[in-house]
Design brief:
The protein is mainly beta and 418 residues long. Helices cover 6% and strands 40% of the residues. The two termini are 49 Å apart. It is globular and about 70 Å long.
Length: 418
């Protein structure tokens, strides 16, 4: 999206008058491109506008120069105070810049396709040198506290923000029982503090557990370069994604920053309905209970991920009726803590006429350092195909599995690489 600033109250009506003048193209076009700012009537703005929000402090601010007030005009020098008021002033395509500070707010629905932009929208929350660590170079954060945000339309972006919802869902995109085709949702460079026993980001499209891939209508969901930090001891699921297509999860970190080790399932995919065209790449997961739980994958690719100190890399029971293609390649599984990271994959259903069912585990690196009284089994690939599945092809090749350490507490029958 290209942001172009236009002067106050420069509307379609003004342009219509201007275009009636001779040589107006030469005169007006440079003027529009270089003009200062738009806070015109939301229904009449010609191009995407910028709106600004400030809490009750200027500490750490980079967008605004004044304290926020909903009686202001919404400019950087006269910002609003609340997210809801800014959203009311904005129209689809606009951007709302949220300056540093904490915004304690009630749950609300995002009803317009706008960009919510925090102070770190250009900065990764993860340390480039070690993605398990936080980036020490981030700006003072724009913190949305105590709220569940519900995307209620398409073309919503949440960029460079920090979310601390407490014991609540952070993002609740739930289209259960609807027929809408909402999509194009982006969640980029955010930090999520997880203190909840519920799923933190919930994406549920239109349909049910029997909906086919061809019937999926909710499309394009992007999660890139975010940081999900587990604080408390309650078990939960970080991302729960169902009944959608064209999903990318890239360069995210799933870490424990408190003492709640191995209580989160990083990804729960397809438990409530099929997911198609899924790409999960270059993510880092540490001390989760599961990297992946899932039930319904159509086309899914997992590549370049690093999963460490996590008891179960995946527990998948793929039960889509149509054919499927599941690829798990070039990932690194680090079990140096002595806890075996098992891959459990079952394919059932898959009986559609003419379907093909491909399962590939290729060129993965698995390092296992056994510790006495901690390590009791060394089982890596456990793949089962039910007889009803048509044309199954299973490829397990090129994987490097290394066992080291003290194997004294592992019985011989529990050493089973495949």
């Amino acid at each position: 999206m290209l942001f172009v600033d236009v002067p106050v109250n420069f509307t379609k009506h003004h342009l219509k008058i201007a275009l009636s003048m001779k040589k107006i193209i030469i005169l007006i076009f440079p003027f529009i491109l270089s003009a200062l700012y738009a806070s015109a009537s939301p229904g009449n703005v010609l191009v995407p506008a910028k709106w600004y929000v400030n809490n009750n402090s200027l500490t750490g601010d980079i967008f605004t120069t004044a304290i926020g007030n909903d009686g202001n005009t919404g400019t950087s020098a006269s910002p609003f105070a609340t997210l809801q008021f800014a959203m009311g002033a904005a129209q689809a395509g606009d951007s709302i810049f949220i300056d540093a500070g904490t915004y304690v707010t009630a749950d609300f629905t995002i009803t317009k396709g706008v960009n919510f932009v925090g102070t770190n929208y250009k900065i990764s929350p993860n340390n480039p040198a070690d993605k398990l660590s936080a980036n020490p170079a981030i700006n003072a954060e724009s913190i949305i506290s105590g709220a569940t945000l519900t995307p209620g339309t398409s073309n919503i972006s949440l960029l460079g923000l920090m979310f601390d919802a407490g014991n609540k869902i952070v993002i609740n995109f739930d289209n259960t029982g609807t027929s809408n085709s909402i999509g194009n949702f982006r969640f980029i460079k955010n930090r999520v503090k997880m203190n909840a026993s519920v799923s933190q980001v919930v994406i549920i499209g239109t349909g049910n557990t029997s909906t086919s891939a061809a019937s999926l209508v909710n499309s394009i969901f992007e999660f890139t370069d975010n940081r999900f930090e587990k604080f408390n001891a309650s078990a939960n699921k970080t991302l729960s994604i169902n009944l959608v297509k064209n999903v990318t999860l890239t360069d995210n970190s799933f870490v424990v920053t408190g003492t709640a080790f191995r209580t989160q399932a990083a990804l729960d995919i397809g438990s409530a309905g099929a997911v198609d065209q899924l790409v999960v790449s270059n993510n880092v997961v540490d001390q989760a209970s599961y990297f992946l739980l899932g039930s319904r994958f159509v086309i899914a690719t997992f590549t370049g991920n690093i999963i460490s100190r996590t008891p179960t890399t995946m527990q998948v029971n793929n039960q889509v009726f149509e054919g499927s293609d599941f690829q798990f390649n070039n990932n690194v599984i680090d079990a140096s803590s002595g806890i075996n990271s098992s891959i459990l994959f079952m394919r059932i259903s898959g009986g559609a006429i003419g379907a093909s069912n491909n399962i590939t585990f290729e060129n993965n690196t698995i390092n296992m350092t056994a510790i006495p009284a901690v390590t009791f089994q060394l089982v890596n690939f456990n793949v089962n195909i039910i007889s009803s599945v048509v044309h199954p092809v299973v490829i397990i090749r090129g994987n490097k599995i290394t066992y080291s350490g003290n194997l004294s507490s592992v019985e011989g029958q529990n050493i089973r690489p495949i």
